[in-house]
Amino acid sequence: MKYTNEDTIKKLENYGELNRIQKQLEYELENFIDMVTADDVIESMTFKSGTAERVSGGGTSDRTADISAAYNDRTCLINARAKKDIQMDLERVTREINRLTYYAGLLDAELGEAVKAHFFESLNIPRTAERLGVGSSTVKRRLRQAVTIMTRMFNLIVS
After folding, report:
1. What pLDDT does residue 56 have?
2. C-alpha angle 53/59/60, rounded to 5°?
3. What is the DSSP track for 36-104?
4. Which of 4, 42, 78, 117 would suit a FRET pair with 135, their CA atoms being 20 to 30 Å apart?
């Protein structure tokens, strides 16, 4: 895939959303709760009568214990996969944030400051111009130049 300036602009405009997603995924990973617990599996295997009372079978067979162990193993696998999915999403989002930040840092100072203020801090053009002490047309020109250079950087990784 060859990147266009429009692709680069979309990536930059998505920077704030990526940061929000990163924080959400970090929270979910730090506070991960198993989707299914062993108790849920055991409870689901306890047969009940139509009146919701336990039916006494007089004991648990070896086969029931084997089935319970198999369900417990499956439960652990499901939970591990769910956690791994969160970790992989977090790594992908973090990599994209780091790439955008690094590429912006490789720009000339004037271009990098314009990108950081406008895209990373979500300042509009007039406020970016005020922050940088230049006119709005200068900000627009710097942003166009920065996007062109960053597009070339993105295309280096796909060629």
Report:
1. 52
2. 100
3. S-HHHHHHHHS-B-TTSPBPP-SS--HHHHHHHHHHHHHHHHHHHHHHHHHHHHHHHHHHHHHHHHHHH
4. 4
What sign does the CA torsion over 48, 49, 51, 54 have? negative
CA distance 124 to 118: 6
Q: Please list the ranges in the chain whose pLDDT falls under 70.
A: 35-36, 38-61, 159
Q: In terms of C-beta distances under 8 Å and separation of at least 24 residues, what long-range contacts does 73-81 make, across chains too?
A: 75/34, 75/36, 75/37, 75/38, 75/40, 75/41, 78/35, 78/36, 79/34, 79/35, 79/36
Residues 16, 8, 113, 139: is their CA dihedral positive or negative? Answer: negative
Per-residue confidence (pLDDT) for residue 132, from 0 to 100:
98
pLDDT at 157: 84
CA distances from 143 to 58, 95, 112 (A): 77, 23, 9
Residue 123 and residue 132 in contact, taking contact as beta carbons nearer than 8 Å: no
Q: For residue 156, what is the enclosing H or E element?
A: helix 136-158
Task: Look at the block and give the residue holding tokens 């004037």.
Answer: 110
Coil, strand, or helix at residue 114? Answer: helix
